[in-house]
Design a protein that fits this description.
923 residues, mainly beta, 26-stranded antiparallel barrel, six-stranded mixed β-sheet
């Protein structure tokens, strides 16, 4: 026994000794300049594990260009060598135990030479540079003369829908920059649809930090998902652009022109379009910026104060409902000079949009004791026009301070005409009421926002101060007419009551706000900071609504029940403190803002006023951890007060729809939103693979919801009230990979969202639980200048149940399949086709076939060294396109169908032109 134990201990000791003296590997080499045959000192040499892209080690070459890495594990690795102004060198190596791998002289190639002769060592289509995912544009092949939007569709981790909305790494892209600058406006589609794909060198996807975080170097957790289109160097000196003209049946046309001038850091651009086959409305972000359909006060976390969003009307957004005719024009100028100390950027935009169409809406309302149905048809025409001007000027006053001035303004008009027919039916499909309504309105709008921001850094690293002053002004005036007739039916189906409304309405709203804020950061020790802020805001606004009844041939009898004249004054003092720990591996922050708000509402009709004061708390906390260079996890919490909108609290009825009348509630209290989020991102650079998971949970205390009273005649009066806690959630998981060997990119994503909502129906509390699940698959295959195939699929399941009628459950499937191909034929012909299949499951309420198979095709001929193209295309060959939308909300389900573009053909001619200077100039 003793002998056996001795042998065992001896073997164990030998094993430990062998592990302790295990042989390690090393690698050596010398970095040189190919053209000048000189050694490159301080070149960065990085060793990455091939299997999972883990960073093993990195060093700098010495003054003679020599480098040596020791104490390395054995296995397969990638060596990356970088040096300013030279192309990166990438090579695979295998290290053996106890051996030194001699790489010898490694020659780097100057990027200027690469413009003439490209030497490819590795197909590195995707790479992670810090927090930025960078795509090499030339690694993703698209058809000749394609735009940047088509290029984005081919890249793993990026999705683009038919309206140009971009999802990157599971999050909505809010900004698209061109060489780091805004291009005409915040509208991403202006850049993605007008910049040519072959002008793009890199596509960079990153979370843009707030201006304050960029200035201080202290991450404040505020980020905006952003894409930067980095242009090729030979496109930055000279000009490039395109002209396109097209026409076809039936009376269809589409014309556009754009030109971009570059000279060093000076850039000038202009564009214009005329089309009745492309809505090309302002993007989803501009809609929220300009629409402002409800007057609202909100707390801006980034600014740290209350901000007023004035009424502006849903002016320049086209949602696909109707037949649009659009005219746009714009001009852009930007320049940097005096060693980039001065930066000026300005853009002008003009837009006019006419939309005409018919739509039909069917709704099922769920009441505590019954069901009823509403069918509605609308004939709409709208005309909207807007001039917008925005810009910024930033100057570096000295080595430690900057001054930034920004402005953004617009002036426009809008006109709307609507003829509506509406009927309500009981659960036996018997008539309850019938309404015909004609409305018209015309509005003038103007808005101007200006700001001045001064920032200064002190000698002590991390100590900064910034001062911001801002002015906001808006003015909206509208007048219109309402002519409505309603018949009410008894149980026998006979009309027993008639109501008639004939009124003229005037609405006017003005707002002026002056805001100021001071932010100070102080380092308390290494990588630890305290952030203090104080803000003051004074917002004065007015809302004047007058309604006149028709009497003796004139609109001269004011209706006091539908008229008011209010002044609002809000004064806010807000301060905050936060503590941040900013380490290389992790980042932690926590703190809160506290705001004291004095609110005064004056009723000029009754010569009375209403005052109240509120103290609002805005806690927040964020945590992020870098597991390894390309792998990150994070989570956070933000709390904020949700103030009632002015429309919700104004105690006056709105009767534009006599069967659905909204009444303001001056007793409405604020709600409080708790927002929690978590994310995980992982990238394998050498495998061109990305994996993203993120989720969001929003819990609302004292929720602002709706209380509806529906009478036996089918008339609904509703107002906003407070209730208990509700919640909603969203999760996303996405996986993207590029297989360079087979020239294929693959995307897979899974999404869920849902929540609990509460409303009140005829005094009874109704709890609605809804869920939505969807999954998608996308793949793109290309052969350089020969063939491209794109496949995208998405399947979704939606369900909703209300507590007042648990026996009435709404559930349905939706499916979408999209296949796009293009192929290059002999004699410079290009053939393209798109197949789009939409499947919408029928329900017990909506039992009509809403499926649509849409087939588009085109053929084009490239001419004059591929600078020009003649294109013939047919849209919706099978004539099956259907304008369709289905929505589940609280106790009702709606299905909306509307006029949309159907089969037409277009013949167009496009000229792409470019002229580049031989040598870059810096001015």
């Amino acid at each position: 026994m003793t002998k056996c134990l001795s042998c065992l201990l001896t073997a164990l000791f030998c094993s430990i000794l062998q592990l302790c003296t295990a042989q390690t590997s090393s690698v050596k080499g010398t970095v040189t300049d190919t053209a000048n045959q000189k050694k490159l000192s301080n070149a960065v040499v990085t060793l990455i594990k091939k299997s999972d892209s883990t960073l093993i080690k990195f060093i700098r070459a010495d003054k003679n260009g020599d480098f040596s890495m020791t104490d390395l594990p054995d296995g397969d690795f990638a060596v990356i060598i970088s040096y300013p102004s030279f192309a990166d060198y990438v090579d695979y190596i295998r290290l053996s135990p106890g051996k030194t791998l001699e790489l010898g002289s490694i020659n780097l190639i100057n990027k200027a030479i690469l413009l003439k002769e490209i030497i490819i060592k590795q197909d590195n289509a995707m790479r992670m540079k810090g927090d930025t995912m960078e795509y090499a544009a030339d690694s993703f092949k698209v058809r000749a003369n394609a735009n940047a939007e088509e290029l984005l569709k081919t890249m793993p981790g990026i999705q683009v829908d038919k309206d140009g909305k971009i999802i990157a790494q599971g999050q909505e892209v809010q900004k698209v920059l061109v060489d780091g600058e805004e291009f005409f406006s915040d509208d991403p589609t202006v850049a993605t649809r007008n910049i040519r794909a072959d002008a793009v060198d890199k596509v960079q996807v990153f979370d843009k930090k707030s201006d304050q975080a960029t200035f201080t170097g202290i991450d404040d957790g505020e980020k905006t998902k952003t894409i930067n289109l980095k242009l090729k160097e030979d496109k930055k000196n000279g000009y490039f652009g395109k002209l396109s003209a097209g026409g076809g049946l039936k009376d269809k046309f589409s014309n556009e022109a754009m030109i971009n001038f570059f000279k060093g850091k000076r850039k000038m651009s202009a564009f214009g379009t005329m089309s009745n086959v492309n809505g090309n409305g302002l993007n989803w972000q501009d809609r929220s910026k300009y629409a402002g359909s409800e007057d609202n006060f909100e707390y801006d976390d980034d600014y740290g104060d209350f901000v007023y969003n004035g009424s502006g009307g849903d002016n320049m957004y086209f949602n696909g409902n109707g037949l649009p005719t659009v005219w746009t024009a714009g001009a852009h100028f930007s320049n940097k000079w005096n060693e980039n100390k001065h930066n000026f950027n300005t853009s002008y935009l003009f837009k006019k949009m006419n939309v005409a169409g018919l739509d039909e809406t069917k709704t099922q309302y769920i009441l505590p004791d019954t069901l009823y149905y509403m069918n509605q048809k609308n004939n709409n025409f709208s005309q909207r026009m807007r001039h917008s001007l925005n810009g910024k000027y930033e100057v570096q006053l000295d080595s430690s301070s900057t001054l930034k001035i920004t402005f953004n303004g617009y002036k426009g008009i809008s006109e709307n005409i609507n003829d509506s027919y509406q009927e309500s039916l009981n659960d036996k499909a018997e008539p309850v009421n019938y309404n015909r309504r004609n409305t018209s309105s015309k509005a003038d709008e103007a808005s101007l926002t200006t700001s001045i921001l001064w920032r200064k850094k002190f000698k002590k690293t991390g100590r900064t101060v910034s001062v911001r002053l801002e002015e906001n002004y808006s003015n909206t005036g509208a007048d219109g007419f309402l002519d409505a007739k309603t018949d009410y039916f008894n149980a026998e189906g006979d009309v027993f009551q008639k109501d008639t409304i004939n009124q003229q309405k005037y609405n006017s709203s003005k707002m002026l706000s002056l805001n100021g804020k001071v932010t100070y950061t102080e380092p308390v020790r290494k990588d630890n900071f305290i952030i203090l802020n104080y803000g003051y805001s004074n917002i004065h606004s007015s809302s004047d609504r007058k309604t006149y009844d028709y009497n003796n041939g004139k609109y001269n009898e004011i209706n006091p029940m539908l008229s008011n004249d209010y002044d609002f004054l809000i004064t806010t003092n807000a301060g905050g403190i936060a503590y941040r720990i900013a380490k290389k591996k992790y980042n932690i922050s926590f703190g809160s803002d506290l705001a004291y708000q004095a609110y005064r509402q004056t009723d000029n009709y009754k010569d009375s006023s209403f005052n109240y004061n509120r103290v609002n708390l805005f806690p927040k906390a964020n945590f992020s951890y870098n597991i390894k260079p390309q792998t990150r996890i994070g989570m956070g919490y933000n709390g904020r007060t949700q103030q009632p909108t002015l429309q919700q609290i104004q105690p006056v009825a709105e009767n534009n729809d006599p069967l659905n009348i909204f009444i303001g509630n001056p007793q409405l209290d604020r709600a409080f939103n708790h927002n929690l989020f978590v994310y995980f991102n992982d990238y394998k650079v050498l495998k061109s693979r990305g994996f993203n998971i993120n989720g969001n949970l929003n819990i609302i205390d004292n929720t602002i919801t709706t209380s509806s009273m529906v009478d036996t005649l089918g008339r609904r009066e509703y107002k906003s009230v407070n209730t208990g806690a509700t919640y909603n959630y969203r999760t996303y998981m996405g996986y993207g990979i590029r297989f360079a060997s087979i020239k294929t990119s693959l995307n897979v994503n899974l999404n869920t969202n849902g929540g609990k909502n509460i409303n009140f129906i005829n005094g009874e509390k109704n709890i609605t639980n809804n869920q939505s699940y969807s999954g998608g698959l996308g793949a793109y295959y290309s052969q350089e200048n020969k063939l491209g195939i794109s496949l995208r699929t998405n399947t979704g399941y939606n369900t909703s149940v209300s507590s007042i009628r648990k026996d009435v459950k709404t559930a349905y499937w939706t499916q979408n399949y999209n296949l796009e191909t293009w192929i290059q034929l002999p004699a410079k012909f290009d053939l393209g086709t798109e197949l789009n299949l939409n499947i919408r499951q029928k329900t017990s309420v909506f039992d009509e076939n809403r499926n649509a198979f849409i087939w588009n095709a085109s053929i084009s001929k490239r001419m004059i060294k591929d600078k020009c193209a003649l294109r013939f295309e047919i849209k919706d060959i099978l004539n099956q396109n259907i304008g369709f939308n289905r929505n589940i909300s609280s106790n009702f389900v709606t299905e909306n169908t509307y006029t949309t573009l159907r089969r037409f053909w277009l013949l167009s001619f496009t000229w792409n032109f470019t002229k580049n200077n031989a040598q870059a100039e810096n001015q």
